[in-house]
Amino acid sequence: QVQLVESGGELVQAGGSLRLSCAASGRTFSTNAMGWFRQAPGKGREFVAAITGSSTRIYYADSVKGRFTISRDNAKNTMSLQMNNLKPEDTAVYYCAADKDYSIGAYTNALRYSYWGQGTQVTVSS
């Protein structure tokens, strides 16, 4: 059974940093794109960052560019999101996602991704 499990979310003050991790099990995702999405209360799921299997292509939402860094370790089947200079508007549940082989659609589109984690809460206080 494929599972994606996020960790690392917590309460942090504005300007602080957090590192989110996503651990995959049940299959390897070394050739698959993976991404981070977030959902704030009362809002839809929003793209944050994505990375292709070989890490040759990386995408960021404009709102996090320059502050967040996505990375992956295919040997460990994990993905991370380093978040610096956090802002209150970054408060959301953060989800890890992975696509299937031969997936179509933009890397920034949640519909591309077939596997999802349960989410981890990030709260940034002002």
Note the topology.
Blueprint: E1 3-7, E2 11-13, E3 18-25, E4 34-39, E5 45-51, E6 58-60, E7 68-73, E8 78-83, E9 92-99, E10 113-116, E11 120-125
Parallel strand pairs: 2-11
Antiparallel strand pairs: 1-3, 3-8, 4-5, 4-9, 5-6, 7-8, 9-10, 9-11
Please provide a written account of the structure:
- The protein contains no helices and 11 strands.
- β5 (45-51) and β6 (58-60) form a beta hairpin.
- The protein has strands spanning 3-7, 11-13, 18-25, 34-39, 45-51, 58-60, 68-73, 78-83, 92-99, 113-116, 120-125.
- Strands 2, 4, 5, 6, 9, 10 and 11 form a 7-stranded mixed sheet that branches.
- The protein is globular and about 40 Å long.
- By secondary structure, the protein is mainly β.
- It is 0% helix and 49% strand.
Top keywords for this entry?
4-stranded antiparallel β-sheet, mainly beta, 11 strands, 7-stranded mixed β-sheet, 49% strand, 126 residues
Count the DSSP helices.
Answer: 0
* Average pLDDT over all residues: 96
What class, by secondary structure content?
mainly beta
Overall body shape: globular
Main β-sheet description: 7 strands, mixed
Radius of gyration: 14 Å
| SSE order, one letter for each helix or strand | EEEEEEEEEEE
Q: Low-confidence stretches at least 5 residues in length (pLDDT < 50)?
A: none
* Distance from first to last alpha carbon: 40 Å
Helicity level: under 10%
Tell me the number of strands.
11
Instruction: Give the percentage of residues in beta strands.
Output: over 45%
